[in-house]
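Feature request disguised as a bug: please show the residue count (84) next to DUF3243 domain-containing protein in the output. Example input:
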Amino acid sequence: MATVLAKFDHWKHFLGERVEAAKKMGMDEEKISKLAFEIGQFLDEKVDPKNDEERVLKELWDVGDEQERKTIARLMVKLADSNA
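Example output, currently without the count:
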C-alpha cells in the first residue's frame, strides 16, 4: 500500500479500480461518495501526506467544511472513475 500512496498516478489508478469494483458490486455513486468521504476523514486523521498532491488534498480538506469535504470526496471518486 505504501508504494501505491507514494505516486499519485498509481493512487488514482488504484482508487479507480476500487470504484469500478464497488460499482460491479451494485453500489451507487452516492454510497461510493459517502464511503470516499469516510476514507478521507480517516486519512486526514491517521496518514501523513507522502507527496505534493496528497499534501494539497490534505490542506484543502483541512480548510473545508463538511459540505466542501463531501464535494472533494465526490470529485476524487469522479477522478478515480476516469482513471479506471
